[in-house]
Records
---
Amino acid sequence: RKEVEQDPGPFNVPEGATVAFNCTYSNSASQSFFWYRQDCRKEPKLLMSVYSSGNEDGRFTAQLNRASQYISLLIRDSKLSDSATYLCVVNPLSRLGAGSYQLTFGKGTKLSVIP
Amino acid sequence: SQTIHQWPATLVQPVGSPLSLECTVEGTSNPNLYWYRQAAGRGLQLLFYSVGIGQISSEVPQNLSASRPQDRQFILSSKKLLLSDSGFYLCAWASFGTGTDEQYFGPGTRLTVT
């Protein structure tokens, strides 16, 4: 099983739609989770952090299911500007050194919001 | 607020030529620093990380090296580039000892080896 697995998509949705992405992770000891957004040919940018069961920020909701080892990202009322690749990121607690943490990145799910 | 800079933004280099990419962070002290590479259609691959000046750890053995001559400066180098070194190179920083794991990325350098 891959460490972090995502459906690559693309997800093509109309404006105003609700879309959800799932991500599964293999290390049951993982404690922290993130969603990053990456626009074409740009750097990844932190969208949300998930340290407990979930997090909500405006139109975006992230939920964590530890028993099934998956994280989801829900986007409501999709905007054209939401078009991007969404990266699921997990800290598998494989410490690299004191105070340093290794994050494991999924390959991303591509979202296209269509007018 | 913290900012992270990388340069150059784009680079085209012939096979066998040397490489030097620079990353600097402002607005924070003693950050953890990381170099990643993202090849076309692939996920982010951690190359190097550093928890302090002069401290470098390598995650993937290859013809690249990294150095941290100052607290907020991280350099990625190669003596001889290979075609397989082409990709999008990203520098990232994270706060040391805060108990949070978020990493923040610079704008990246897109390297094409010809």
---
Amino acid sequence: KAGVTQTPRYLIKTRGQQVTLSCSPISGHRSVSWYQQTPGQGLQFLFEYFSETQRNKGNFPGRFSGRQFSNSRSEMNVSTLELGDSALYLCASRWDAYEQYFGPGTRLTVT
Amino acid sequence: GIQVEQSPPDLILQEGANSTLRCNFSDSVNNLQWFHQNPWGQLINLFYIPSGTKQNGRLSATTVATERYSLLYISSSQTTDSGVYFCAVERTGRQAGTALIFGKGTTLSVSS
């Protein structure tokens, strides 16, 4: 089976812009979660989608949003980018309640 | 919320040495995973081990859920083992949804 894929891998945006990141889960996995990794805060949970519904949400401002499509692919959007949003964004998928598998990440730089 | 503490924060080894990484967590968990983050940032699954002991080649892991800790053993370390090792847990009792809580990681450097 193909692993979790994320696009794009690298992205440079300007403050105030918005960005959309995409994640395709492992075939058959219906749960997709997003995480943000920064040097200061480490790895933090953003949100989780299951069958097109947001099932869990971390402690991030409303500028961070996401959605899931019927084929389980997921997108996350960050509006009004701030310098502090520069991070590695990781997507993970899982089947049922077992282990999560991570994609290669999207490295976002906000200038 | 649940706290996850990893030790040591940094570890420097010579090739061939053995090491033990520790993960302590503050509450009951129903999921515990160990990851190795490669230089490009991807988290590579090492073990899914909410309890018990597992082995995979030179790596093994033990989780003692009742005492709220997990250990990752690396034997005969190689330079390719270098990187950051993360422990992540999911708390018991969540009605729905999943959120892995990560420790701050152990940075391992293996020199030849």
